[in-house]
Design goal:
alpha+beta; single chain; 197 residues; 6 helices
Length: 197
């Protein structure tokens, strides 16, 4: 989970594989996940348990997953005062973070639950702004886009581009042209399609 969360953070490109320390006694600095734990702890996305452990073998609870997401969105723990985890869960629900996830406080979450919540986070507002989290990361998400044509289907479309219901965007060589004609969500990085589902 921590690796997934860090992969969706602003620090995603600065995780060091040359780590020689660990912020938690039960996380060996040479474990594969240690750089992600270090990044998340250093950036205060997670704080571990009160006894100073991380407990890497434990399953994640719904409220633990929500807390990390809310911190990624810019919420601070002191905004919720003594209401943990109810304040975080309530704020997450109002942002749509838990849409499609049928869990309650105390429940363990699955990888699917976590993937859904992290996906929902991309469309949530950064705390105190109207900026979507995905835009903070430098990406643009269009929902319910129809892929109209590429150059191979319509010579009026410039080679290396796709015409869509939202405009024309660059595509990479590995773009799956079987998606032309489909409707879905389009993810862009600098006006280049990087994902469609």
């Amino acid at each position: 989970y921590v690796k997934m969360a860090v992969a969706l953070s602003e620090q995603r490109n600065s995780v060091s594989s040359m780590l020689k320390v660990s912020p938690f006694a039960d996380v060996s600095y040479n474990s594969w996940y240690a750089p992600y734990v270090f990044s998340a702890a250093s950036n205060k996305y997670l704080s571990g348990y009160i006894d100073g452990t991380f407990r890497p073998e434990n399953n994640i609870t719904y409220e633990e997953a929500i807390t990390v997401i809310m911190r990624l969105l810019g919420y601070k723990d002191d905004q919720f005062m003594y209401s943990w985890p109810y304040g975080q869960v309530s704020a997450a629900k109002s942002q749509g973070i838990s849409d499609g996830v049928n869990r309650n406080i105390g429940d363990l979450v699955t990888r699917g639950d976590v993937a859904a919540m992290l996906f929902n986070m991309l469309d949530a507002n950064v705390y105190g702004t109207t900026t979507k989290y995905i835009n903070k990361l430098g990406f643009t998400l269009y929902e319910d886009v129809i892929l109209i044509a590429t150059h191979s289907k319509d010579s009026a479309v410039q080679d290396g581009y796709i015409s869509t219901s939202e405009g024309t965007f660059a595509i990479k060589n590995d773009f799956d042209e079987t998606n032309v004609g489909c409707k879905g969500d389009l993810l862009l990085d600098n006006n280049t399609v990087i994902a469609f589902s």
